[in-house]
Amino acid sequence: MTVRHSVLGKTLREQRRALLAWMIGLSAVAVLYASFYPAMSSPDLTEAMDSFAPEFMEALGFTALGTPAGYLGSTTFGIPGPVLTILLAAWLGIRAIAGEEEGGRLDLLLAQPVSRWRVALERFGALVVVMAVLAVVLFVALLSISGPADLGAIGPGNLAAGTIHLAVLGVWFGGLALGVGAATGSRAITTGVVAIVGVGGYFANTLAAPIDAIGWMRDISPFHYYSGGRPLVHGLQVADVAVLLLSASLIVVLGTVRLDRRDVGT
Amino acid sequence: MEPLHGHVRPRGARSVTPAIRTDGLTKRYGQRRGLAGLDLEVHPGEVFGFLGPNGAGKTTTIRLLLDIIRPTSGTVEVLGMQPRVAGPDLRRRIGYLPGDFVVEGGQSSRELLTFLGGLLGGVPKHRLVTLADRLDLDLDARIRSLSKGNRQKVGLIQAFMHEPELLILDEPSSGLDPIVQETFLGLVREASEAGRTVFMSSHVLSEVQRSAHRVGIVRDGRMVAVEGVDTVRARAIRRFEIRFEVEVPADVVAGVPGLDRVVVDGSVVRGILEGRADPLLKAIARYPVASILSEEPTLDEVFLAFYRRPEGDDGAA
User: Fold this and answer.
1) Does the pTM exceed 0.90?
2) Residue A166, Cα to own-chain centre: how many angstroms?
3) Is residue A237 one of the residues assigned to a domain?
4) Following DSSP, what letter does each residue of B176-196 receive, concatenated?
5) How far is B88 from chain A (nearest CA, A)?
6) A170, A56 contact by CB (below 8 A)
């Protein structure tokens, strides 16, 4: 079985346009933000930002704007990067099973000599590949702009760590969408779950963190494992990445167990 | 000593395993009934027409055979195996055309068929090209740009291209023009001659009449009739409508043999005729006839002619 004939390879070929569009979009956003750093890092602006309540700034994802890692972590890696990445990942994850099923395209594939496990796992594999490619492109774009934009202090290692964390966050949300879609076969339910977990997870991480009583909420938010260890400052957080990858895999496996047992397309 | 009767055994006695067998096959979708105890047996090598009105359970049956959905109760065996247990190994031996052939539109037919051929373990390129030529399909056009009929050709090619032992075709003729229809019937005939089994559904008798050996009629989730296609054809059931130039009495065709469901409405007489038309023509000749329309009956009418007429052993109602 060559890649060309695999479900994974076929899935990637069908998604190549979306991937290309996202690579361009995400890189453009990253480069735009980065190129503003020299203007943003002036003492005046930093002082103005400091006058806002720190909790408010934290909720908006702004921390330590005056340092290169703080700036990039608050801008590209703060909201726009994750939003763009999660949108693509969720779209791919929803399409993988639920979208194909509701569109009536899954029958033909499942009537072939492939197991449902293989379909789900190869589609998850395709998602991982897409996220990896996206991370590499983003890394190259940021690395090439970091010199001219005075962001060189972050260093290529930590920059790579930041993009890996972003890709893994995408894999997590894509896995969630694929797993819920495989279990339910419903695009609407899957979209709802991803939206609730995305928005809820974001606020649980930023708003709940300072409040002791609900501090645990932060620990179940995927965003905590994405940015809590500050990869742009401290490098790759292996444990955090592992938590995201393992929980995403678990969701995919549970969803596929259900898919394997239920009726398709009724 | 070799058994003397050895040569009497049909060659390949293994093939007595039915190509398809269901026993009390039932499928419920919540409150909705899909199948209510369907019994079906398709012999190896035969072309079986699976007939029924829309919503009778044809597609449900086919999706159960392919393990896309699972039975509520009853048993299914395809090529001697249970679809749920046998999985991919069984599906490799089946060619399937879904009732609604939908695929990603951005790819060419060649791309799709090469991919599916790969999943099937490889299909020689020349076979693809031959089939496309016979059906007159441009393999390099994007599927999105194809007409409904041309898309159906893609569906037919993917079902036939690996020369499977069993073809399961859900409404294969839909969208095909008469010329392609001929080609399709040729493909079915060749498959049958090569010893392969063809199971095809339709809601029109004439579509399967020419290629099938037997037809089964499914209604409300049950098999209500299985007949040799010759038997069905011999009964020559037609629907007719006769318009007279004058109003005719209600008993104008009374006593004519082979009539069913006759309605006399002023100067128009409608009904079902089975067998010879001569007695009917003689009977109506007493009045000036404006026109006679005779056409293929619906499945329901065929069914009624076969099973509701009080001439059989039930004699009820």
Assistant:
1) no
2) 5
3) yes
4) --HHHHHHHHHHHHHHHHTT-
5) 4
6) no
More confident residue, B189 or B203: B189
Q: Say whether residue A114 is in contact with chain B using an 8 A CB cutoff.
A: yes
Closest residue of A to B155, CA-based? A108
b/e string for A159-196 if b means 16 or more Cβ within 10 A?
A: bbbbbbbbbbbbbbbbbbbbbbbbbbbbbeebbebbee
A1–chain B Cβ distance below 8 A for any pair: yes
Note whether residue A266 is domain-resident.
Answer: no
What are the respective helix, strand and coil percentages of chain B, to the nearest 5? 35, 30, 35
Computed over every residue of chain B, the mean pLDDT equals 87
Of A104, A41, A152, residue with least CA distance to B68: A104
Which residues have CB under 8 Å from B295's CB, separation 6+? B238, B239, B240
CA distances from A98 to A233, A251, A264, B8 (A): 39, 15, 10, 55
Q: Which amino acid is at A76?
A: T
The two beta strands, B20-29 and B197-202, are unpaired
Domain assignment of residue A168, yes or no: yes
Q: Are A239 and A224 in contact (CB under 8 A)?
A: no
Q: How far is residue A106's CA from residue A186's CA, in Å, rounded to a whole number?
A: 13
Round to whole Å and give the CA distance between B130 and B118. 18
Please judge whether B94 and A111 are an interchain contact, meaning their C-beta atoms are less than 8 angstroms apart. yes
How far apart CA A111 and CA B68 sit, in angstroms, is 7
Query: What is the band of B1 on the pLDDT scale with cuts at 50, 70, 90?
Result: very low
**Per the CB < 8 Å rule, is B98 touching A111?**
yes
Q: What total number of domains does chain A contain?
A: 1
ipTM of the prediction: 0.83
pLDDT at A44: 66
Between residues 14 and 73 of chain B, which touch chain A (CB distance below 8 Å)?
Answer: 29, 63, 66-70
Residue that the structure tokens 């128009």 belong to: B268
Compute φ and ψ for A198, nearest 5 degrees. -65, -55
How distant is the Cα of A27 from the closest Cα of chain B, in angstroms? 26
Candidates A54, A55, A30; CA nearest to A203 is A55
DSSP A263: -
Name the residue range of residue A203's domain: 3-261
pLDDT tens column, B153-188 = 999 999 999 999 999 999 998 889 989 999 999 999
Contact: A111, B66; criterion CB under 8 Å: yes
Cα dihedral angle (A179, A181, A184, A188), rounded to 10 degrees?
Answer: 140
Residue A117 at interface with chain B, using a CB cutoff of 8 Å: no
Classify residue A117: in a domain, yes or no: yes
Which 3 state secondary structure label does DSSP give B275? coil
Please name each of the domains of chain B with its CATH number: 14-228 (3.40.50.300), 236-307 (3.30.70.1560)
User: Which is nearest to B242 in space by CA: B199, B272, B220, B201?
Assistant: B272
Instruction: Write down the H helix ranges in chain B.
Output: 58-65, 83-86, 88-91, 109-119, 125-135, 148-160, 178-193, 205-209, 229-235, 278-284, 299-307
